[in-house]
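The records we work with from here on pair a chain with its fold. These numbers are not coordinates but entries in a learned vocabulary of local backbone shapes. To see the layout at work, look at the sequence and tokens printed below.

. . .
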Amino acid sequence: MKLLLLLTSSFPYDNGEEFLLNEVNYISGYDRVLICPCNLKPDSAVTKKLPDFISCVPLKTVPGGKSAYAGLMLRPFIWAELLGMMKSGTFTPQRAHEMLFFMKRACEIDTALAQLPELASADEVTIYSYWLFDAAAAGALLAQELKRRGKKVKQISRAHRFDLYSEFAKMNYLPMREFLLERIDRVLPCSASGAEYLQKRYPRYAEKIAPAFLGTADHGEKHGARENGLHIVSCSFIAPVKRLHLIAQALEKADFPILWTHIGSGPLRGEIEGMASKLPDCVRTEWKGQMDNAAIMDYYRSHDLSAFVNVSASEGIPVSIMEICSFGVPVIATDVGGTREAVYDGENGYLLPSDFSPEELLSRLKKLKELPDEEYDRLCRNARGIWAEKFNAQKNYRNFYKEISQ
């Protein structure tokens, strides 16, 4: 039997990992497919429906006590990580604790995975971790044991943002990178810039690192519109990294009709809505709150939108940008992470510097409003065209599973 183990954080439970909803429909090349959410909470609830050919096995991990840390100190790869930090001058007690906690969690996940009855009857196993983090480390431990039992094993991992860029991590440190890159067969960041980042930092493993774009479903072609002033939309968790306050500050000096719709919620919602309540009369705002993906796509399909705005401080390649481009709507976004792989400046929207000022964003919105119709239409057509070429889910995911199942 050929088995695929897809290790997620919580999918198909709770919120998050929404982009997997598109991907799982294209899984092929395996006799059995198990999705194993590795980091569920006691009150986690199923929120997404899986295709009938996929089974979900929520892992029941048992937290290890202090003795688990002592056991880790007997592992050679733990000492290799500690010595590596010492040689590079990056060792701190806090980082050492972070690494030990990380590997303790990986061992807990590994222990739960090893109990899956499907492993006994599988001849070939592909371990696919959606994040290059603790579940990927657990997968590496499991792969070692399965190989010892004589099974054919392949391990791959995607990488996105928090699990990729150490400068955005706690203490500027992501644990066990060498351990993961040495053991995983293919590491597939969701952007070319992410792949280049890893290759430059870990040139020994460059050949096993390559980009693998995500994709979004085709919900039908639409087109941007400006007939009733600008209708801009943003879609994100309302958290500091998304910098929605900069949109509010940009609109403070607007002197033309704008409707700003935001989809999503988060800890800063009250603060941002408070700023928005003081905007000039020509600016209206609409706060949709948390919506599931189907509802978001229905909103895009049924409303005339002029532009999508993303001003994050950090990104992989935003799936939200892929989704809106499929409807033929231009994008204004910060030039961070892999965003420029989806937004071509002057072709399907505009890129802002990562440290842009609110005045620069307002200037871009004015330029978009004043574009001749033929130029605006060109941006809209290009938005749809770039999506079709690079981020079509059907094309990307079929190719992805064809590659990893061979």
Q: What stands out?
A: The chain has a mean pLDDT of 95.
